[in-house]
Structures are given as C-alpha cells and as structure tokens.
Amino acid sequence: MTFLYKFCRNRSGLVGLAMLLVLSIAVLLTPILSPHNPFQLNFGAALRPPSAEHWFGTDNFGRDVFTRVIAGAVYDLRLALICVFGPAAIGVVIGLVAGYFGGAVDSALMRLTDIAWAFPFYVLVLAIVGVLGPSETNLYIAFFLVNWIGYARIVRGETLVTARLEYVEAARVLRYSRPRILFRHIMPNTITPALVYSMSDVVLTVQAIAALSFFGLGVQPPAPEWGLLIVESIDYMREAPWMTLFPGLALAWVGIGFSLVGEGLSTALKPEG
Amino acid sequence: MSILEARSVSRSFVSRRGLLDLVMRRPPLALKAVRGVDLSVQRGETLGIVGESGCGKSTLARLMVGLYPCTEGDVALKGASMQGPDPEGRIQMVFQDPYSSLNPRMTIGALLSEAITRYRPKTTRADCAREVAAGLQKVGLPADVAEKYPYALSGGQRQRASIARALCPRPEILVADEPVSALDASVQANIINLFEQLKKNDGITIVFISHDMQVIAHLCDRVAVMYLGEVVELQETASLFEAPLHPYTKGLIAAVPRIDRTQRERMPMDGEMPDPFNLPDGCRFAGRCPLAEEKCNQPQVLRAVRGGMVRCWKAPIE
Q1: What is the domain extent for residue B134?
Q2: DSSP string over B232-255
Q3: How far is C-alpha B133 from the chain's CA centre?
C-alpha cells in the first residue's frame, strides 16, 4: 500500500508508467486500431505518407508502418525484458552469495565477473554470430553471458553492508536457514538499487537489440523489429522519412518511459526511518 | 552446574591482506579482541560484563551466543561445547542498536511469527497470532504493534520488540549486548525493569553487557570487569562496589557521577590505552595505573582474593 502511494506521488514515475501503458494498450488493441496486417505486401500503396488510413504512412512494400511499429513493440519489449530480468535474477543470486559468504567464494565469483566484464560486448556478439549464425537465439545467449554482471556487483556491495547489520546477526542467532537469511532478510534490503538499475538497463538493452538487428546480427527480416524497420527505411529516407521516424520515436518512447519509471521506483522503494 | 561457560576463550581478528601484502610478505596484523576468558554463568543469575569501549565486551557476547567461532578455547552450554548458535534456541541475544536489529521490510508480527514457527513448526496460524500477542504483551507492547513496521516504533518500543523476538524460542539464557546504551535515560529505566521481570518471573539467566556502572549495580548478581580483552576482576556486585580489588575497577567506580555531595576518593587514570595490535606482556593496565611498579611488567594471572577473582598482584588494594 505505502509503496503504491509513494510511487503515485512521484510525477515522473507516473508519467513513465503512463507512457508504457499507452504502448501496451496499443499493442493489445492493434486489431481494433488498425485493420492492416504487418506482413501484408501491397505494392499499389507503397510509400504513402501518414493519413487517416495509414497513421504512420506505408513502407516501400506498402505495409502499414503503424501496424509494424506496434507489432515491433512485442519483439523488442519481450526480448529486452527477458534479456534484462533473466540475467538480473542470476546476478542477484551471485551477488548475494558472494557478499554473504565472503572469503574464497567471494574472490572466485568476483574474478568470474571481472572476466565476463572484460569481454567487449559487440565483439562477443560477433563471435557468437560467427559461430552460430545470426538469429534471435544468439541475442539471448549474448545478453545472458554479460547482462548479469552489473546486478552481481551492485547486490554484492549492498550485501557486504547489510550482512553485518544486527538484524542479520539476529537471524543467525535464531538459526534461520541460509536461504531464508539470504532471500527474506538480506535480499529485500539490497535489491532496490538493482531494481532501479534494471530500468535503465532495459533502455540500454532495447537499444542494443535494435542496434544488433540493424547490423543484421540479431532478429532477422521480415520481423517488424524496430532496428530492422530503421535499417529497411534507410534507402527511402528522402521520399518517406516516416519510415525511419516512427520506429525511432518508438525506441525513444520506450527509453524515456522506463527511465521515468526507474526514477519513480528509486523514490518509492526507499525504506522509511 | 554452570549453564553457560566460556573456557579459555580467545578471539583474534586478522586484518585482510591484499595481493600487495602477500607479494611484499608482510605478516598479517592480528588483533586479539578477547584473550583467555574463563567465565561461568550460573542458572538464574544475572552476570554483568563491564568495561570501556574497545575492551572486547561485544566480541565476548558474540562468542557466547556462537555468532563468532572462538580462535582458542570454547563455549559450553550445559557442559556441551557449542558449534555456532544453539539449534534449539536456548541462548538468544538482544542487540545494542534497536534501529538496525529489526529487518525494516518486515512487520513486528512477521518477525515474531518467523521465530515462533522456526522452533515450533507445527504452530497453526491462529496459535501463532495468539503467541505473538502474548509475546508483545509480555514486553509491554500493545497488540496492534504486530501490524506495524519498525520505522513506526520509537527506540524503546523497538528494543521491546527485539526482546520479544529473542524470547520467541523460549530461551534459557539471554545475552544482552549494551541493550540500553542507545536509548534515552527515561526509556533505559523501563527496559532495565523489563529485564528484572524476566529474571524474577521467568527465571531467565541473563548476561548483561554494559559500560554503565549504575545499570550494572542495579541489575546484576555478579560482575566481570574487562580491560583490553581480558577479565581483570570478577566479584559479587555488592562487594565489587564496596571493595573493588583491581585498580581499574576502582577507577571505574570513582568515575560514576553522583548527585549527592559526598565525594568519593578520586582515582586518576592518565596515559593512553596501549596499541591493541601490540599489547604489553605484563599488566595491560599498568600504563594508566597510578599504583604501577616494576613488577607490573610481568604477566599477571587471575587469582582468588577475598571471594573474588582479580588479575593484579597488588590486590587487594586499599
């Protein structure tokens, strides 16, 4: 209750949430909002500017850009959320274990993160694509290999501090199980900065996914992924700037939305007292 | 038979060594926070442990509940050596800082039920709620505190909630590490009365750690005085305050402020505490002791004098 109340009192958080809700509703209502099929070619209607019929215009194959941008949200958001929260869960557990047990466990896990940290991300993706060929699966592999590092480091640092607090000592005197101490007593008090970080991580990840698809390393055509929409539009930028503009705006919209939600979360999640 | 016993307990903390220290072959720095402490606590008694900050009181408390492993010696509960905190919860601890001893993300009710179900897993929800209410009542908190988060409570209320949680496993021994020093003077008295009740009505054995001589005098049956990791004196409370055996104890008692005009004999304590990383072989108090002589540079042993124990060859001092 208090969390919702505090979140709602923060204007930027609310605005961000509203932006993301608008996009989600648009995704859910596409069948009503637009009668077009995102994959349906219609050469007679190619490169039409925005109109009542085609809100965001049409592309070089006559496909409705509005329908494709909204359909792209499903790709980009699904990929981004999985590629952020999957690795985040792994990173949080690694950070908790390293920070709580300390000593050799901590050193081993932190050297592992250093190694993962040392990989230049795009070179890593190139290597994976080089071995496995370009596909959506490779995006998952690449992000799961590196995206957990930030969470492991943040949570480890917080855990180092929290594990020395007296309520954790009290839990140890009471002989609670280690999972209970880690997940019930330490995690809720260390997760806030990681959660706030995850919001900006979603922003960076959406853009990385779009960038990788733009370079042909990620999602493959004819999927209406935003990076693909932008790369397909390049040749027509003069005649049909709407083809580039709207997927770009969609990327910015999602980025701003998640950033604002992150700001709202960071104020709402501060414990009182 | 003593219920809880520290048997030549020592605890050192080794400073963490970086890669550079290893390469340079620097020896690790060890701090002996507690050295060779022998203490036995009798069932039903309240044993006070007193000393200034940095003397190892809190470390000793954590050794006694099993939070820290002993570097040397061991702690025995009813004669059996303890490995970590007691699985049956017979020893519980009350902490110094009521602001960090309760998980800020859990209600008081959740904190108490967690402790209850840990030790009596078959407790039904209704029984658990009843036990929480009874536990809160016992420490003088209203029942509606169960729904509150720690931030909504005052320092004194938090300390009561913390005591209520420590009582959930139905412990035989409570180790209280400076439980009142973070509280206002008026609240201190209430919490001390609560400890007295627990001692009288429930027969709980209490190890009470404090730097406040007046609190110790009020509550404890016997007192151990610690200085730089060692017990320097152990006596019944009354005789300790009437006739302290160790010069340090005398100094501590003389330093207690009084409101009446009767001036006690002053006890000057000059000089600095020795560096805890590099302690003298002889009496550790010698550097500050007004009675120090050449012979004080020899190691001192804890010996029986007039029914008490003291680590000073000159005792009893007059």
Answers
A1: 98-170
A2: EEEEEHHHHHHS-SSHHHHHHHHT
A3: 28
- A to B CB pairs, distance under 8 Å: 70
Do residue B182 and residue B79 come from a single domain?
yes
Residues of chain B with pLDDT under 70: 260-267, 318
For B133-174, what is each residue's pLDDT tens digit? 999 999 999 999 999 999 999 999 999 999 999 999 999 999
Residue with tokens 């000592």: A169
Closest Cα of chain A to B103: distance in Å? Answer: 6
What is the average per-residue pLDDT within A69-73? 88
Provide, as residue numbers in chain B, all residues whose Cβ is less than 8 Å from the Cβ of A160.
none
Q: Coil, strand or helix: which one is A181?
A: helix
- Measure CA of the first residue to CA of the last residue in chain B; give whole Å: 34
The answer to whether residues B68 and B191 belong to one domain is yes
Number of domains chain B is built from = 2
Say yes or no for a CB contact (<8 Å) between A170 and B150: no
By C-alpha distance, which of B146, B202, B203, B211 is closest to B176? B211
Here the ipTM equals: 0.89
Q: Is the peptide bond before B85 cis (omega within 30 degrees of 0)?
A: no
Instruction: For residues B84 and B178, state if they share a domain.
Output: yes
Verify whether the Cβ–Cβ distance B151 to A273 is below 8 Å. Answer: yes
Closest partner CB to A166 (pick from B86, B101, B115): B101
Task: Report the chain B residue with the minimal C-alpha distance to residue A190.
Answer: B105
Residue of A nearest to B61 (CA): A173
Q: What is the pTM of this model?
A: 0.85
CB contact under 8 A, B91 and A173: yes
Q: What is the chain A residue with the closest CA to B16? A: A103
pLDDT at B188: 92
At residue B300's C-alpha, the angle toward residues B294 and B305, to 5°, is 110
Q: Burial, B200: exposed, middle or buried (Cβ in 10 Å; 0-12, 13-18, 19+)?
A: exposed
- Nearest-CA distance from B92 to chain A in Å? 7
Rounded to whole angstroms, the Cα distance separating B173 from A183 reads 29
Domain-embedded: residue B283: no
CB contact (8 A) between residue A273 and residue B65? no
- Long-range CB contacts for residues B210-214, cutoff 8 Å, separation at least 24: B210/B48, B210/B49, B210/B50, B210/B178, B210/B180, B210/B181, B211/B50, B211/B51, B211/B52, B211/B53, B211/B57, B211/B178, B211/B181, B212/B50, B212/B180, B212/B181, B213/B50, B213/B252, B213/B253, B213/B255, B213/B256, B214/B256
Q: How far apart are CA B87 and CA A104, in angstroms?
A: 26
* B29 and B83 part of one domain: yes
* Cα dihedral A259/A7/A265/A29 (nearest 10): -50
Q: Go through chain A and tell me how many residues it has.
A: 273
Of B141, B170, B199, the residue that ends a domain is: B170
| Beta pairing partners, B88 | none
